[in-house]
């Protein structure tokens, strides 16, 4: 059987990914790189919250934009907003979720490669999620994650009003 020797992205150790019987478990953290599962788990625990938030934002935007995704432009814009407006990666993600998922706006611009709506809806999203947080604190649950409940409402039925009837004989009497 042919061997396919690769280098682990995190520890640098070389290993063969073809035979599964050796007991080496691996995964692809990137499209062209391989890593041990153990190394990947260790790396995941070492990440800061900011790196995790960046990964979440990156994955969401990349999933929505598909082939139109431009990482260089994405990174440049997000870094500029962090520097100029003191935005956070989680705040940018939540503003996109608020604008497209909660408010139900069309994702056409997002799919074309634009995330430029963030500065315009960031404060609204902040207020929305802050109100959810306060409501959860008042309720004492401590859980401020959004959850949606689907409610089915029957279609309204139009009431058919009877036609207005009038007496033709009465009109003739008025004219006399």
Description:
It is a single chain. This protein has 176 residues and is mainly alpha-helical. It has two domains: 1-46, no CATH class; 48-145, no CATH class. 51% of the residues lie in helices and 9% in strands. It has seven helices and four strands, in the order ββββααααααα. A hairpin with a 2-residue loop joins β3 and β4 (33-36). The chain is elongated. The mean pLDDT is 85.
From the structure provided, what is the oligomeric state, counting identical versus distinct chains? single chain
Number of helices: 7
Biggest β-sheet: strands ordered side by side in the sheet = 1-2
Radius of gyration: 29 Å
As residue ranges, the low-confidence spans are none
How many structural domains in the coordinates?
2
What would the principal axes of the Cα set say about the shape? elongated
Q: What is the string of helix and strand elements?
A: EEEEHHHHHHH
| SS-derived structural category | mainly alpha
Number of strands: 4
Query: How can the largest sheet be summarized?
Result: 2 strands, antiparallel
Proportion in helices: 40-55%
Whole-Å distance between the termini? 112 Å
Fraction of residues in β-strands: 5-15%
Task: List key phrases describing it.
two-stranded antiparallel sheet, mainly alpha, elongated, 51% helix, 9% strand, 176 residues
Summarize the structure.
By secondary structure, the chain is mostly helical.
List the helices and strands and how they pair.
Layout lengths: L4 E3 L6 E3 L9 E5 L2 E4 H10 L2 H17 L5 H15 L3 H14 L5 H4 L6 H22 L28 H8 L1
Antiparallel strand pairs: 1-2, 3-4
């Amino acid at each position: 059987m042919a061997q396919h020797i690769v280098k682990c992205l995190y520890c640098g150790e070389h290993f063969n990914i073809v035979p599964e019987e050796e007991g080496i478990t691996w995964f692809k953290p990137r499209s062209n790189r391989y890593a041990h599962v153990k190394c990947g788990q260790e790396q995941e625990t070492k990440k800061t919250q900011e790196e995790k938030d960046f990964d979440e934002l990156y994955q969401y935007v990349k999933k929505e934009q598909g082939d139109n995704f431009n990482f260089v432009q994405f990174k440049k814009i997000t870094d500029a907003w962090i520097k100029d407006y003191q935005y956070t990666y989680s705040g940018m993600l939540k503003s996109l979720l608020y604008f497209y998922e909660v408010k139900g706006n069309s994702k056409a611009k997002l799919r074309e490669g634009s995330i430029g709506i963030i500065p315009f809806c960031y404060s609204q999203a902040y207020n929305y999620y802050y109100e959810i947080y306060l409501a959860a604190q008042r309720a004492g649950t401590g859980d401020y994650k959004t959850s949606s409940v689907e409610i089915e409402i029957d279609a309204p039925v139009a009431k058919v009003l009877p036609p207005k009837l009038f007496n033709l004989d009465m009109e003739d009497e008025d004219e006399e």
